[in-house]
Amino acid sequence: MNKTRYGKAALSGITLLLATGMVLSGCGGNGDKNASSGGSDNGGGAGGKKSKVTVWYLWGGKEGQVIEDVIKRFNDSQDKITVEGLSVPDEQKIKVAIAGGKGPDLTDSFASNVAQYAKEGIALPLEDLIARDKYDMSDFVPATLEQGKYDGKLFALPLNINMNGMFYNKKLLADAGYTEPPKTSKELIEMATKLTKTSGNGEIEVLGFPSYPGFPFQALTYGFGGTYVSQDGKKATFDQPGALEALQAIYDYNKQFGVNNIKQVQATGKWLDPTDPFMSGKQAFRFDGPWLSTFMANNNIKLDYGLAPLPYLDGHADLAGSNEAQSSIFYIAKNSKNVDGAWEFMKFMYSAPELAKVMGGMGNIPARTTSMKDPVFGTIADADKFMEFAQNANVKALPNIAQLPDLLNKVVKEEGEAVFNLKKTPEEGIAAMQKRAQELLDK
Amino acid sequence: MRRKANLTGLLFSAPFILGLLVFTLYPTGASLVYSFSDFNLFKPLAWVGLDNYKWIFQEKEVSKSILNTLYMVLLATPVSLIAGLLTAQLLNLKVKGQSIFRTFFYIPSIVPVIASSLVWMWVLNPKSGLINSLLDLAGLRGPNWLLDAAWTKPSLILMTAWGSGGVMIIFLAALQDVPRSLYESADIDGAGSVRKFFSITLPSISPIILFQLVMSLIVYFQYFAQAFMLASLTNSGADQTMAGPEKSLLFYAILLYREAFVDFRMGHASAMAWVLFIITALVTWLVFRSSKRWVTYGGD
């Protein structure tokens, strides 16, 4: 009796230990697999067995479906690689999964993260693959390719060119006697003030200034022809007229109409939602991207609006069309177990016709010039206008430097917030940004 | 035979022991090692000595987060205890529908934090939200709760008071354990209800107050979920800084999380975790020490 009991206990104990051992070795085993991956799979075609590539993307819903569609077309187009897509709308989760060796082979992000991912060893440099396949990149808009680079090396390919345009409510402008949108900073400020309507207790009924959905400092600065950092990423450039004028305009408007009243508008409506003040006719000027046009078109929102380039700094007609370009990108995880498969899919998705389909499906402007000519963009709301904005010579981009997240999330956010809340003057704000940014860049 | 019995015992407790080793002791030890190194999950770790601890004492965001956290510890702890105790006291009254009231007051505690935070974001909407609409009826203009640095933490405390059902239910149990006979003799002596509350109820439930105090302190030192929701879900999309207006929602645990999982500075995060552990342990120890003066155990 006792003996059997002991035997059973021992048996279950051994099973348990074995199971634990398996869990533990599973946890630690990734390193080996990674080490042997680098191309040994090579499409897996030789044995007739398909190799697998996992692609995680941040989009969901309709946009996620666009990615699933391109995956399906790729899987149908060849019989060596099977791509499996998954919508993971949480970037942290993706990073942590990659860190744990359980992440995707290929995933997307924003260009502003490329430097950090490259530096931290999350993203794989693409140079070798490009050289091996003599991959032609001359069709990509050069400014967007820069967005995939860190330290001179390409780590990611740009999908699109995102930038803001100035949306304006035609009816509100007409009611105030305007027939044209503002072209310069001065006109914008004057019109924004005139178009603002308040109720007796100061609450804002119509927001004239583009301070929704958030603090418009970056869009205004780049629109006014200013920049945050020099193109080589070495010098802070807040101490130039564009940034100061932008901050001054925000400060003056807030002072006149009350910070609390403006915050109330910011807190009340939800971005890209029927409660959005622009869509409900309660915002005169709005700086936003092509997704706003797409959203209004898809959701049948009837609003008589116009779209114009961002106003330029008064007295500097040479700066007309100034803007900031941003891109979404795809990168291969450094510890991908199927680098070649991921690269094959990437090449397919980035081919001119496919990129046109993917970006067209999302209502974005593709990063390839040939894709831009695809007829699909004739059917997308405002695509023609955004393409025109994108091709202006005054469009700039923030350089990919590892300090970028700290620069944007700490320096600009903290100092900008202090000016927005009228706790610092624009001059003090700019001086502080310049000083702190330079310290950060010198690190 | 004896050894066999020991072995059997060990084998049966093996699941727990292994769990403790693998999921508790190993990570704890690892975090101690990380706290002395530069480690981002992707690159091999490099020893940096006390740099991470020095960073804690120099970084402005850390001091800001400590002040924010102390605000919650010092205000939310008493609010949740008092709200919990008062509700328990009311729900202890023999009235019609007592169990229905008890259920209603406890319901907020079983709503998941994420869901209740989302609901509160609606309630606190400055224009169409419930609270400001009521204030509007009274002719008052309510604040921009979640966008005004002065009102973000009071918003959280309001949510705390609403969700104090967990505290309440324990107090309710404690109140029912206070011997009837004490109240009866107080009645004979002519004591009023206030006098009875302070002289009988409070001393009788003081061990429970101690327990709740310690638990609350720990909860607020680690305050995270509600603030994380409010700070990262803004009207204009996700905010990666998770700090709220003028960093008024940057609590210690949020900064720790951000350092670890947004910026991948595991060294900073681990060092912060150890400092928090030491602070919490110290405060708990002080509370226990002071408890000799104000906690009365029945039978002593």
From TrEMBL, chain A:
GO terms for molecular function: maltose binding. Residues 1-25 form the signal peptide. One of its GO terms (cellular component) is ATP-binding cassette (ABC) transporter complex, substrate-binding subunit-containing. Coiled coil: none annotated. Pfam families: SBP_bac_8 (PF13416). The keyword Signal applies. Keywords: Signal, Transport. GO terms for biological process: maltodextrin transmembrane transport; maltose transport; transmembrane transport. InterPro entries: SBP, SBP_1_CS. The keyword Signal applies. Gene3D superfamilies: Periplasmic binding protein-like II. Belongs to the bacterial solute-binding protein 1 family. This is ABC transporter substrate-binding protein.
